[in-house]
Design brief:
Layout (H helix, E strand, L loop, with lengths): L1 H13 L6 H5 L10 H4 L7 E2 L6 E2 L7 E5 H6 L16 E6 L2 E9 L16 E5 L2 E2 L13 E8 L13 E7 L7 E9 L3 E13 L2 E12 L16 E15 L2 E14 L4 E3 L10 E2 L15 E3 L29 E17 L2 E18 L22 E5 L1 E20 L2 E19 L2 E7 L5 E5 L20 E19 L4 E21 L2 E2 L6 H6 L5 E17 L4 E12 L2 E2 L8 E2 L2 E14 L4 E13 L2 E10 L2 E10 L3 E16 L2 E13 L3 E3 L2 E2 L2 E2 L3 E3 L9 E12 L6 E11 L15 E14 L5 E9 L7 E5 L14 E3 L7 E4 L4 E9 L1
Parallel strand pairs: 6-9, 17-47
Antiparallel strand pairs: 1-2, 3-8, 4-5, 6-7, 8-9, 10-11, 10-49, 11-12, 12-13, 13-14, 14-18, 15-48, 16-17, 18-19, 19-21, 20-23, 21-22, 22-25, 23-24, 25-26, 26-27, 26-28, 28-29, 29-32, 30-31, 32-33, 33-36, 34-35, 36-37, 37-42, 38-41, 39-40, 42-43, 43-44, 44-45, 45-49, 46-48
């Protein structure tokens, strides 16, 4: 009762109208105006770089949210996945499958389900200090000393390029100051958590300024593994260092060079069996099991038997399991990221600044995901045929390796000539990615002489149908390699027709080249001449495609007053095509294109103690890339076959975003935001081929995953000065809500709605002498320990996809829905000393 009343109070207080945490989030770190009039204004100016130049957020005709350093601390954001709580309602972040090693990131309903493939692109561009990151792998590495995170909503195809249909997420690091100083952080928390970091600025010497950053983030597993010597689930251990050097040989030249290297060891979230045979599948005519129908295929008959779960298996769809029911081999996945960035800026004259952004980056991933245990197929038929000499296998160990290298070069000219502000640039991107995947069974079970089940761990080299989990012993489900190049030229100009009226036009021309090969599928080496007949029978064709796009944009902005700004915007974007390495033929798919129409209002009022932003948009997407996924079982492994196709017609995405920040009295700031997102993909005709026959087209409804219809976030911040010093006591609480969403394109089954509350109390800037300032804080995430399923997979509660017949479906591997619960409540204490 107490928790329910508290939640209701928080929601009521957080939803003062349709408020915005994002706008105020950046405020603590945004440069403040220095005049007396502005000092009395309350809410300060927030500087952003969304247009490749520094502008005031309120005067920039782009819907965006900004999270500054203090906001990230208040929410205890250590990595991008921590923003999955809904801090920015339009920004949706989820794990791919249960894994922390790859993130799915979406904005405004542009969310790719499986961008985990080398030849598949993201729909939201991720940038770190102006450098585009080509893969979603490695995105969950520890954040270094971040100045702000800018969330740009809507297509950014002109200035930011391809794969920014939904928007862009730009992370800006703090630059060297050239003055001695820094900060040292340390913290502890529950689940064995400990954190540490150093951020040191060295004095400028001969025009060179150096900044050094190092971070450590550790948390023990939140679901324990009963198998001795094996890691549990939702464990992470991140560490990284970054060195930045700023060289200023003259007042007009600044060169920033940085190098970073990081390592993230993690395990996936635990996958629980949520129910058993929820669709009441039984053998016989489908009419006897009307709910037991696989989307996209009209079976007339069901065959096989739904087998009982193994002894000891727990069916739990209500609470997060603290200990797994059956122990399985589980070692940490490892993500290694490294790279350098060089950013040169030369102010040639007051009218022009030339810039060069050069970067090389690499990602190496070794994935180990055994989170499903006996909660997903293959389902064991536990009979006398399961013997000690030949135990029946289960527990799908999903193993994958990925190696990515990318080089980018961007040249920009930014300046102002008379009443025209302009940006022009050239961009080059070169990427090479290779991957492989295997799915052996790691465990077995047999009946002893007394008829009792005995669980064993299979030999890691030959125990799963003659194959195993360690390298050199694996049956390769798939392996592919992709080479991608992208060239672009772009320009954007704003004509300040009057002090109030501004016209902006821009365009980008992009040419993408993608070449890819499938080296293995189901352990068949596609490069061996002896396998040529099999490869030809699979209909395999290498990928060798080139696409050209012209993406225009136009904006009209009008300053009604100094504090009220309105705009109307037309923007376009596109996502490159590719091929699915999860198909035997390496099935190719085309790009998708989006057009967006947006109108917005940005207003400060109440003597700048209140700020209200509103945006409404219509987005139409052509050739939407959608996924059809199913598991096929063969030879001790269970292969995830996924077809990516382009949906016909126009996918409709409509939305409204409203943000409000209020500072009713000094020291108190109330924020919240709301996002409404409507999505509709036209019905898609689907066919299956099996046993030499092809099914009639079936009109199937597809969905955009991880996109709630309604989402909201609110926060309260209060700062109370201590005496006459700079010290203060700060209180922060935020509440985040999202409606239930689908987790897959092809299933209408939804996961759970979410409501998460975070908080922090700090004693900030305590003077400890010698110019040092100490901050002590306690923090908590998911304060009410809410438990909800953020990813629900119904595929294992339905008939298998056709392999030999399009009329009869097998229910032999039907088990139940399985899914992943969110992280439990975490809390801790931190100390930070600034010098």
């Amino acid at each position: 009762m107490f928790q329910s009343l508290t939640k209701a109070t928080l929601l009521a207080g957080a939803a003062l109208a349709v408020m915005n945490a994002p706008v105020a989030f950046g405020q603590d770190q945004a440069p403040q105006a220095t005049t007396a009039a502005d000092a009395e204004a309350g809410l300060g100016e927030i500087v952003v770089t969304a247009t490749k130049r520094e502008t005031n957020l309120q005067e920039t005709p782009i819907a965006m949210a900004v999270l500054g350093t203090e906001a990230l601390k208040d929410r205890h954001v250590q990595s991008l996945y921590d923003l999955a709580d809904g801090s920015v309602p339009s920004l949706r972040i989820a794990t791919f499958e249960a894994r922390q090693s790859a993130l799915t990131i979406g904005i405004r309903g542009i969310v790719p389900l499986d961008a985990n493939q080398p030849a598949r692109e993201q729909g939201v561009g991720i940038y770190v200090d102006g450098v585009y990151l080509g893969r979603q792998h490695g995105l969950n590495a520890a954040l270094f000393d971040v100045e702000r995170v800018e969330v740009l909503k809507g297509p950014q195809g002109t200035l930011f390029g391809r794969n920014t249909e939904g928007g862009a997420l730009s992370i800006v690091s703090k630059a060297p100051t050239g003055e001695w100083g820094g900060r040292i952080d340390a913290g502890i928390g529950n689940y064995g958590a400990h954190t540490g970091g150093f951020h040191i600025n060295l004095p400028e010497t001969a025009g060179f300024s150096v900044k050094l950053d190092g971070v450590i983030q550790h948390q023990d597993e939140t679901t324990k593994n009963p198998l001795a010597g094996q890691v549990g689930w939702n464990y992470y251990n991140r560490k990284g260092v970054r060195a930045a050097v700023r060289w200023q040989p003259t007042s007009s030249i600044t060169n920033d060079f940085s190098y970073d290297v990081a390592k993230d060891e993690n395990t996936p979230f635990y996958s629980q069996l949520l129910n058993f045979n929820p669709n009441n599948c039984v053998a016989g005519p489908v009419a006897n099991s009307p709910r037991c129908q696989l989307p996209g295929i009209n079976y007339t008959t069901l065959s096989g038997t739904v087998r009982p779960v193994l002894p000891g298996v727990e069916i739990n769809g209500d609470t997060r399991m603290k200990t797994a029911d059956i122990g399985v081999p589980q070692q940490v996945s490892t993500d290694k990221t490294h790279g350098f960035t060089n950013n040169l800026r030369w102010t040639v004259s007051p009218e022009i600044e030339l810039r060069s952004i050069t970067a090389w980056r690499g990602v190496d991933v070794e994935q180990w995901d055994n989170s499903g245990g006996a909660h997903r197929p293959p389902v064991v038929n536990l009979t006398a045929a399961c013997t000690q000499a030949a135990p029946c296998g289960f527990s799908r160990y999903s193993l994958a390796g990925l190696r990515q290298r990318q080089f980018t070069q961007e040249l920009q000219a930014v300046g102002t000539v008379g009443s025209i502000d302009y940006v022009a640039g050239l961009f080059y991107f070169n990427e090479h990615v290779s991957d492989d995947a295997s799915t052996p069974n790691s465990n077995g079970v047999y009946l002893n002489a007394q008829g009792q089940p005995v669980y064993v761990t299979l030999d890691p080299c030959r125990g799963s149908g003659g194959f195993g989990s360690i390298r050199g012993c694996r049956s390769i489900d798939r392996a592919s390699e992709v080479w991608s190049k992208s060239y672009a030229a772009y320009g954007q100009a704003t004509w300040n027709a009057t002090d109030q009226l501004h016209f902006t036009v821009g365009a980008r021309y992009t040419q993408d080249k993608k070449r890819g090969v499938l080296n293995f599928f189901r352990n068949v080496n596609y490069n061996l001449p002896a396998n040529a007949a099999i490869v030809a029978g699979n209909g395999y064709s290498p990928l060798d495609e080139k696409w050209n796009r012209f993406n225009p944009m136009a904006t009209i902005a009008y300053d009604v007053t100094d504090d009220v700004h309105v705009y109307a915007k037309y923007a376009t974007g596109y996502r490159a095509g590719g091929a699915s390495s999860r198909t035997a033929n390496y099935q190719a798919f085309d790009p998708e294109d989006v057009k967006s129409y947006e109108a917005g209002l940005k207003a400060d009022f109440w003597d700048r103690r209140a700020r209200f932003n509103l945006a409404g948009y219509i987005m139409d997407r052509k050739d939407s890339q959608i996924d059809i996924s199913f598991i096929q079982f063969a030879g001790g492994s269970s292969v995830n076959v996924l077809r990516t196709i382009n949906a016909g017609g126009t996918t409709k995405i409509r939305g409204v975003e409203a943000d409000l920040t209020v500072q009713p009295v000094d020291g108190l700031t109330l924020n919240a935001s709301y996002a409404y997102t409507y999505t509709k993909i036209p019905l898609v005709p689907i066919t299956f081929t099996a046993g030499g026959a092809t099914s009639q087209p079936y009109l199937q409804q597809f969905y955009i995953p991880f996109t709630p219809r309604n989402a909201a976030s609110g926060s309260v911040d209060y700062s109370l000065p201590i005496g006459g010093s700079d010290a203060s006591v700060k209180f922060h609480v935020d509440a985040n809500y999202a409606q239930a969403t689908q987790a897959f394109d092809q299933f209408d089954t939804k996961a759970d709605a979410s409501f998460l509350v975070n908080g922090r109390i700090s004693f900030a800037d305590l003077d400890v002498g010698y110019g040092r300032k100490l901050t002590l804080s306690i923090w908590g995430r998911n304060l009410f320990d809410e438990q909800y399923v953020f990813r629900r997979d119904p595929s294992n509660s339905l008939p298998a996809a056709p392999t030999s017949s399009i009329t009869t479906g097998s229910i032999g591997n039907t088990l139940g829905d399985y899914g992943n619960f969110n992280a439990p409540r975490t809390f801790g204490a931190e100390a930070s000393i600034r010098f």
